[in-house]
Amino acid sequence: MASGTAIILLLAAGLLAAEAAAPWWKTASFYQIYPRSFKDSTGNGIGDLNGVTEKLEYLKEIGVTATWPSPFLKSPMADFGYDIEDFKAVDPLFGTMDDFDRMMTRAKQLNVKIILDFVPNHSSDECDWFKRSAAGEAKYKDYYIWHPGFVENGVRRPPTNWVSVFRGSAWEWHEGRQEYYLHQFHKKQPDFNFRNPVVREEMNNVLRFWLERGVDGFRVDAIYHAFEVEADANGNYPDEPRNDWTNDPDEYGYTHKIYTVDQPETPHLVYEWRQILEDFQAQHGGDERILMVETWSPIEIVMHYYGNATAEGAQIPFNFQLISNLHRDSDAYHYEYLINNWLSLMPSGKSANWVIGNHDKNRVGSRFGADRVDLFNILLLTLPGCSITYQGEELGMLDAYISWADTVDPQACNGAEANYMAMSRDPARTPMQWSDEKFAGFTTGSSTWLPVAQDYAQRNVRKERGVSLSHLNIFKRLQQLRQEPSMQQGNAEIKAVSKYVLAVKRHMSGSYVYISLFNIFNSIENVNLNGVFSGLPDNFQYALVTDKSIRQLSDKVSAGSVTLMPHESIVLRSTEML
Ligand code: GLC
């Protein structure tokens, strides 16, 4: 008896230790803020850091534990902050370094982690380093990728056929230096030369600078572009092979990207940065600092960013599998495959993350249908690992209509009016909808940098707070469910019940079994869960319903027969613990 008690105590102590040791980010709920559009505190129609600080309590209200604001550093704003002029200064449009410090202090009081958007692939052409590089100053000469190009029949042409993500040649002629420089994005975003160790150290110092100022980690922008193929002995670069689906040399898809992205050196850069975080940690203690890396690469390559046998990499290589591969007509088998494929390819001991939207993609409700907003929120928040939500998705914000005249996104402006809507990222970047006041309560000013979406009076934080089954309240309810032990640490089984219904089971002994069910299409479906999962308790109750449901919270239901209404997603909880 006495030894039995001792064992139980030991087990309990072990569990507590495991809980204490579980790093914060593993089951964090991340929230991406687009600062220009979150909250304007000055009335100039553009959001800012004081606006973010003012709304940190809202993040707390909706159960968010960490936020990643898009860049707010000094920038000419050719790509709205992704073109950085000074990597160690706040842009006056967004505030001051004191405002940043205040935001950090408030975030720490509320226990909301702050992740800095780190943009290493390129700087602005107005960055001092670029100006000095263009002037040929010895130290800076090779900070960027330069090449004189070739002269044929008296006409100068760029060094290769490489194309910019934002259309047109990836090479821009610089009159001053009489050479071309490489820019994989906008011509005002020259690419750094990461083969130059001085550049690497410069960027390492940027990381150290912001760690010192208290950030909890970095979202690493566009990492797969960091290296290009090495130049040959003559300093020349090879053309990329052509894709045959377009003859337009200005279209990004014109070449097959074998020399400009996903070079083998790139994950090692991330390993080097992880080491900087580890060294900082060793010196300063505190909670683990993290790296979240953006790479739109084949899944096998993405996995390298987690680390290798000898080095740790990013804790969170963004999982874009759902964003990139799911479509409106994808069936449950497709969802099941994409989710399980990530989980099975992930190196052992690593954690998963789930993303469905960001500032570069159309709104979830516009891509998949407004009827599926809750479905994706429930999926992201009940899968094992951390979730990453883009601002406004908790409200089910939809793409706004932005006319050509109002369009500001360089990715759209570099193209033509005829197809700008297919390219524009503006519709998902409109101001956050706080209330039904003028400009959705985003600003007290007289205009906004992008128009507010037309439906703001129906879809806003204030209104959704008051509607029991609003997207917002479902999001909040999910965050409570996420605190349950089975959701935090339990095993996960993801199965398609049929082509229409997806099921996610979370369970651990000594806890309730949770099952989320997703009816993807618009038919009524009946599900026998015993045929899907083994060892289920007989009885469940509704732990989360949506406005599609005809059942109420806490209603009882048998595992043998659960009916789902069109597009309904629910969470069930076993009435007894396992
Ligand atoms: C990333 C950002 C995108 C930006 C690009 C260039 O993909 O998410 O918004 O335009 O990098 O920095």
From TrEMBL:
The keyword Glycoprotein applies. Its EC number is 3.2.1.20. One of its GO terms (molecular function) is alpha-1,4-glucosidase activity. Pfam families: Alpha-amylase. The keyword S-adenosyl-L-methionine does not apply. CDD domains: AmyAc_maltase. InterPro entries: GH (IPR017853), GH13_cat_dom (IPR006047), O16G_dom_2 (IPR045857). It comes from the Eukaryota. Residues 32-429 form the Glycosyl hydrolase family 13 catalytic domain. It is an enzyme of class 3 (hydrolase). Belongs to the glycosyl hydrolase 13 family. This is alpha-glucosidase. It comes from Drosophila busckii. The lineage of its organism: Eukaryota, Metazoa, Ecdysozoa, Arthropoda, Hexapoda.
